[in-house]
Amino acid sequence: MDLPVERWEAYARRKWASLEPCLQQQLSLAVPLGDTFLLCLPLLQPADEEFLHRLAAPNWVGKDPRAALFYKEEGNKRFQKKEYTAALMLYSKAVSHNSPEMSLCYANRSAALFHLGHFEDCLEDIDRAQAKGYPNRLQPKILLRKTECLLLLGRLQEAAGVISKVESKIAMDQSLTSTTRQILLRKISQLKVKAHEKESSPVSVLEALSKTQKDLEFWEENGKISSAFSSVSLNFNSCRGRHLVATKDILPGENLVKEEAFVSVLSPGKSLLLQDSAETTWDTRVTNGDLHCHRCLKQLLASVPCGGCSYAKYCSKKCAQLAWEHYHSTECPLGALLLTLGVFSHVALRTVLVAGFAEVSSLVKQFHEDDKELHKAEARGKSRDETRDSTAGMEGLSEKAEPLIPGCEDDGQYRGSYQAVFNLLTHAEKHSPEHKFLCSLSIVAICKKLREADLTILSQGSCESQSKLKAHMKMSAELSPELKILGEAMLRHMLQLHCNAQAVTAIRESESGDSIVADSEQVRLATALFPVTSLLNHSCDPNTSVTFRGTAVTVRASQPIPRGQEIVHCYDQAVELLMRCRVDAENFLSAEHMLVGEIEDHLAQGYATLGKWQEAARHLRCSIQIVEAHHGPSSVETGHELFKLAQILFNGFAVSEALCTIQRAETVLSVHCGPQNAQVQELQEMRACLLELPRSLLHRVE
Ligand SMILES: [Zn+2]
Ligand SMILES: [Zn+2]
What we know:
binds zinc ion; Serine Threonine Protein Phosphatase 5, Tetratricopeptide repeat; 4-stranded mixed sheet; 12 strands; 3-stranded antiparallel sheet; alpha+beta; 30 helices; 57% helix
């Protein structure tokens, strides 16, 4: 959930209700966000901070040696049962805490990775184990695993080098019993045979080559809007605001925008926030935070933990370093608080950290000056809109009558920069005063915590020396002018998120047991801000569809868009629902309807596992009907169901219906996910396979 945990929300509501009516009135009227923020600043009392502190305690993200040992033991149990994926996850939890047995945790994880066939990652963990002081007596064991990995990866010379190292270790080590020595030597000779066999089979690079070629896609960039294709243009009018329009007739499946997130924050996953009391045992459940890199969202194998907390985990040392440099050094000590305040508060903080203080400060100050101008103009009797347009025109410094569109830089270009993010609409007037108060109070809590923590961010672009600044922060009970600027910007971002947040989703394959038909579900990975994609206005009946790869979004046309038509997009439905009211009857009924569809889907899975293809197909057809009625026949949801049906028909040799279904699934999925999508490719392979079957066989089976 992106909003703060419920108890904090309820607390803020009670606090709002207890405010003096005149103060409530003042807060409701305070239009500039800076004023709202300043008014709320003294309202967060020590008692409130204490409450928040208690609320955050179960989300404690520090490192605990006892937790490391616990997770290692749990991992060993799973490893012995040959449940390597589960063991891997538990060892990853173990290495995210510090313990004297760190090297053993890494070594055990390398073994799990080896069994799962991830040899590169296994090698990295072996190096980590050795860097942490892996015991000498166990060296031969880990070095032999290293040799095996190198052989399997075709790195023969390195493998030979490691083998001779092991041999000399065994020769020198007096403590080895003769049996151990025998076992090791036998293993070595086996590996030598393997190495010899490898040498005679050349390694193919063709696969790697074709993969990079697939990544090269046709890309005709837009001259005015970075990350957008030339088929769209940016327009502005008072009724639609900024919006994107088709400059030519667009076909379904055509790419419209391809953009890297300005900022994204991984959703922590449910189980973390469900815990209510201080924990006595450690949670062995795997959450989103264990499965994906906290920076690039890549699926994690051998995660690299943050040096400071047990929460942040990364896919590589590089991601860990970049995250630390850009934002995590400030966020790390605030871990539990951020988990309590919710992802929106976290995104707001990360946005200002990524932008840097100099950039934030210059835009906030510029905004205040523009606002003063507007007030003066208003006093002269002009409307706000007129003034905005005319001042914008002057900024443009061009002869053209066309005013500069907000968020564009001086050259008229719209780039996915902080300036663009800063100018996203907050719709501050549409939020209830109570809700604005909750957001403000959350941001004030972050600012007060930042005052206590090490403030490296302010040193960027600030002329004051860092140490002087820090001393100043700790001394005064008041927030520094710098923190006030950051607070105002964060509040702005938090309110923007309610209409501009994009849920980054992924299809997660759950390979449960030996199920033949892959079960997949759409999961929410992160919440992100995409300044270009945000230019698309919201519609519940969108003409686009979005897919994600890591932190990058691709927007495609989901239906024909004639030239001149507006391009619209359906924003995060979870947020949409919260924005309106919590439950409306219609949604409730259709949810129930969808439940029937889910049951049919599960029945189909069950029959498929038993190899009863006809039964499975029958239930899946029912499920498809319901999904079609709910999401539409060309929706991505229907596409996924059709994909499952194609798999079942394929496995059941129902050739003609399979070919038909493959065609439908491919059409729908390639529109939404592009031709390189794994499911689309699999469909093509299924078709090729069916078409290759001998004719005689086809007739006999049908
Ligand atoms: Zn990463
Ligand atoms: Zn950390």
